[in-house]
Specification:
The complex is a heterodimer of chains A (477) and B (369). Chain A has 477 residues and is α+β, with helices and mostly antiparallel strands. Chain A has 18 helices and 18 strands. Chain A has four domains: 96 residues, Uridine Diphospho-n-acetylenolpyruvylglucosamine Reductase, domain 2 (2-Layer Sandwich), CATH 3.30.43; 118 residues, Uridine Diphospho-n-acetylenolpyruvylglucosamine Reductase, domain 3, CATH 3.30.465; 106 residues, Alpha-Beta Plaits (2-Layer Sandwich), CATH 3.30.70; 92 residues, Alpha-Beta Plaits (2-Layer Sandwich). In chain A, helix 9 packs antiparallel against helix 14 and helix 10 packs across helix 13. With 369 residues, chain B is an alpha+beta fold. Chain B folds into three domains: 167 residues, Uridine Diphospho-n-acetylenolpyruvylglucosamine Reductase, domain 3 (2-Layer Sandwich); 84 residues, Alpha-Beta Plaits (2-Layer Sandwich); 74 residues, 2-Layer Sandwich (Alpha-Beta Plaits). In chain B, 31% of the residues lie in helices and 26% in strands. The radius of gyration of chain B is 21 Å and the shape is globular. The chains are: A alpha+beta (477), B alpha+beta (369).
């Protein structure tokens, strides 16, 4: 994965740039000590690292605006950062960039139960948004697995999803408004507590733009009343195909579970060894969760049981208590940790039409043999969002490269069957060079025109999303 | 000019020397009559892919809504966002098309629970003002690959590009439906009752008020609907006793009337549509001094019937949200912008987008300010 060569002219002005930032920001909001900037050298895609020129940690929209105005004036690229949990390298710096982290912007500004929204500063963590409203019986729906750590700013940048978005949608479906600071330092308010945009849907455009259009400092988020209850069921099958067919039948029957999670044999084994959740020994496992009052849950699970039985499952385990529910989810929720204990791994994020599930799983297994790397599958089956985990050994020369090549082939396969490169993690640098698999030049040109409008000098997170050759002219490279 | 394929569409736009008025079914575009040749795209039509098990549908932008609804209905599915039919409201003929629905981001009462048209829209193909064919999104439910031009196209009224194909997430139609009706509430009390219902865990899929009736809709499996309707009835008893109606035919008709603003059909006056913070709605209705008013989306959407020529925005002053003049005479529309004027910073971005997607200014010139 290439990053642009740092601009030596900017590097030579480092002291001046830091001094300019210090002149307008509080002393502790600007970091240039190399020992400290090292902490910002990567995000959760830790195979790639590069310490930035400097880091700014503003406490207010005004301070964000000041930092951006200065960098704009000095022609310095800015890499916005939430909590640094991106799996796609969205917050990876270049040596000639200033990292702008919004972590200190973490206050709750307004809670409005009557209108069912909360307004927060964008550095606030995902889970703590729910934390602010759950005593009153509400929650914020998008639930990426990093929700304990990840910031709303990053969720908006990547349009994050989670296990429960089959029913509740992803970030863009739960975002009502933002305060956005443009690269020039101009502060723009988009949307608010009302439901629809007046003119163009700029909110929809900003959400998922990977920090390339502006820095979000405040967000108005839709909150929902908690369901009366929820209960999962665990269903085991002896083939991936049959499990896939069962998913399609559940969906067709009109049940809309909040989550349908799918794990294949390698993943089931690893989770079982790690968490001892008592999973059955089988080829494919579904965890289906439904919500509502007790009678409503019984009604839905009864229907799911009927459908599942038609597919001859090897196990059907309905939770009868909170403890049993916890155990059913335990293995799934520890999947990434379990895999991490066995091996280094790369987590992919392609989405496919649900109908292609069996075919894609079969092809991945074949390719696993060809590349000589093991792969485990755990994913959100209801919406086709796959998370193949490719296992490799970071200390073995050539293994990372082989893993990346394998990953690229899987993502190409996702596009071939009618899906896409990334369902919820974002493009970042990780999938940047694969964009042309999914999009023609005209398609990318149309997207880059958007950035031309918001950030004409291409200073915000410029080396991401679009293949470098594609964006070279615009980046002035 | 009648277009029959995406390629013809690209050619027509590339060759255009003057403004074009983009038309699907011609049933909903607001604003004043502009000059320019009509570009009729209704023949880019037909369902290209429908996978009920994957909840996805792809169709040409000119496909009539009726054809889509018939195909979905045969599989017990539907477009959950409940697109509106404005023909009787605006006095238009023609056949509503999928592309028109997307261009207007048209969403009905279920918006409060299922989201808007833009939330169900998974992918688009369109031709921009330079004649380039562009695709964005796709046909899967989760897709964050590159920028989301899908949302941008929804509600852009054909001013950034002309849609040729759209793909949607569809949902199963429910087994049962029930509506709770409370009579005689004023707007403030109705607003409070709707908020109360929407704050409950009972998944309200419609909350509207007008003609002295406050209506709350529940959908799902029969047992569940009965249970939730009962729960809501007792919780709303403090506002008024609620009648519960389980009849599907009557429910469909009643919510169609709300969706299509039936009380204003044929009534004299201008029609305004306001998107607001729900709890602001009763106060705004009072300030508006309209001939008639109706709330949908639990108060988040206000429909107003005002005397001809009323400058509602001037009358209301600043509020959080926006107002669109949906129906008025040409004389009024010459004086009052149909779309809410934007603050300078937003207007600059909108203008920039338009200049880049339609540099010659030929797509629906004059529309959207």
């Amino acid at each position: 994965m290439d990053l642009p060569i740092p601009n030596p002219e900017i590097l030579s002005r480092r002291a001046m740039i830091v001094a300019a930032l210090r002149s307008e920001l509080p002393e502790d909001a600007v970091i240039d000590d190399p020992a400290e900037t090292l902490a910002y050298e990567c995000d959760a895609l830790s195979a790639y690292r590069c310490p930035p020129l400097a880091v700014v940690l503003p406490r207010s929209t005004e301070e964000v605006a000041a930092a951006l105005r200065i960098c704009h004036g000095a022609g310095v690229p800015v890499v916005p950062r939430g909590s640094g949990t991106s799996l796609a390298g969205g917050a990876l710096p270049t040596a000639d960039s200033v990292v702008l982290a919004v972590t200190r912007l973490n206050r709750v500004l307004e809670i409005d139960y009557d209108n069912r929204f909360v307004r927060v500063e964008a550095g606030r963590t995902n889970l703590s948004v729910t934390g602010a409203v759950e005593a009153e019986g509400y929650f914020y729906a998008p639930d990426p697995s990093s929700q304990l750590a990840c910031a709303i700013a990053g969720n908006i940048a990547m349009n994050s999803g989670g296990a429960h978005c089959l029913k509740y949608g992803v970030t863009t479906n739960n975002l009502l408004g933002v305060t956005l600071v443009l690269m020039t330092g101009e502060v723009v308010t988009i949307g608010g507590a009302h439901m629809d945009a007046g003119g163009y849907d700029l909110l929809g455009l900003v959400c998922g733009s990977e920090g390339q259009l502006g820095v979000v400092t405040e967000a108005t988020l839709r909150i929902l009343p908690k369901p009366e209850g929820a209960r999962p069921v665990l269903i085991g099958f002896n083939s991936n195909e049959v499990a896939g067919a069962c998913v399609a039948d559940i969906i067709k029957a009109g049940v809309l579970p909040v989550a349908i999670e799918f794990m294949d044999r390698p993943c089931i084994r690893a989770c079982e060894d790690f968490a001892h959740a008592g999973y059955p020994d089988c080829e494919a496992l579904l965890i289906v969760e439904v919500e509502g009052g007790d009678a409503e849950i019984d009604e839905q699970l009864g229907l799911i049981r009927q459908i599942a039985m038609r597919h001859d499952p090897v196990a059907f385990r309905e939770s009868g208590s909170a403890e049993e529910s916890r155990k059913i989810w335990l293995g799934r929720k520890s999947a990434f940790g379990a895999m991490g204990q066995i091996n280094d791994y790369m987590c992919l994020d392609g989405t496919i039409p649900v109908s292609s599930l069996p075919f894609v799983l079969k092809r991945i297994a074949e390719m696993s043999g060809e590349f000589g790397l093991d792969v485990a599958n755990v994913f959100h089956a209801g919406d086709g969002n796959m998370h193949p985990l490719i296992l490799y050994n970071a200390n073995k020369p050539g293994d990372l490269e082989a893993c990346e090549a394998f990953g690229a082939e899987i993502l190409k396969l996702c596009v071939e069957v009618g899906g896409c490169l990334t369902g919820e993690h974002g493009v970042g640098i990780e999938k940047r060079d694969l964009m042309s698999v999914q999009y023609a030049d005209e398609d990318m040109e149309a997207q880059m025109r958007i950035k031309d409008v918001f950030d004409p000098k291409w200073l915000l997170n410029p080396a991401k999303v679009f293949p470098l050759a594609q964006s070279a002219g615009r980046r002035g490279a | 000019m009648k277009i029959t394929s995406e390629r013809d569409l690209a050619e027509a736009i590339r060759g255009a020397e003057h403004g074009l008025r983009i038309r699907g079914g011609g049933t909903r575009t607001p604003g004043k009559q502009e000059q320019g040749e009509v570009l009729d795209v209704s023949a880019i039509s037909g369902i290209r892919l429908y996978e009920p098990g994957a909840l996805t549908l792809v169709a040409g932008a000119g496909t009539p809504l009726a054809e889509i609804e018939a195909a979905l209905g045969a599989e017990g599915q539907r477009l959950a966002f409940e697109p509106a039919d404005w023909r009787r409201l605006l006095g238009r003929e023609g056949e509503p098309t999928l592309g028109g629905i997307v261009a207007a981001n048209s969403s009905g009462p279920r918006r409060v629970q299922a989201g808007a048209c833009r939330d169900a829209l998974l992918g688009v193909r369109f031709v921009d003002g330079t004649g380039a064919i562009v695709k964005n999104g796709g046909r899967v439910m989760k897709n964050v690959t590159g920028y989301d031009l899908v949302k941008l196209m929804a509600g852009s009224w054909g001013t950034l590009g002309v849609l040729s194909e759209v793909s949607f997430k569809v949902l199963p139609a429910p087994e049962a439906v029930a509506t709770l009706t409370l009579h005689g509430l004023d707007f403030a009390t109705a607003g409070a009752a709707m908020s109360h219902a929407l704050r409950s865990p009972f998944e309200v899929t419609g909350a509207a008020h007008g003609q002295g009736r406050t209506m709350i809709r529940i959908e799902g499996f029969a047992g569940s609907v009965a249970y939730r309707a009962g729960q809501l009835q007792s919780r709303l008893a403090r506002y008024a006793p609620a009648e519960i109606d389980h009849d599907k035919g009557r429910n469909d008709a009643n919510w169609r009337d709300i969706r299509d603003v039936a009380p204003f059909h044929g009534a004299a006056g201008d029609v305004w549509r306001l998107s607001v913070k729900p709890s602001d709605a009763p106060g705004l209705v009072e300030r508006a001094g309209a001939r008639d008013a109706m709330l949908d989306w639990g108060g988040g959407l206000i429909w107003l019937l005002t005397p001809e020529g009323t400058d509602l925005r001037a009358r209301l002053g600043h509020f959080d949200g926006h107002a669109t003049l949906i129906r008025a005479g040409q004389e009024t529309l010459a004086r009052i912008a149909a779309f809410q004027p934007e603050p300078a910073s937003i207007a600059a971005i909108s203008k920039g987008l338009r200049a880049r997607f339609d540099p010659r200014g030929i797509l629906n010139p004059g529309l959207m300010g």
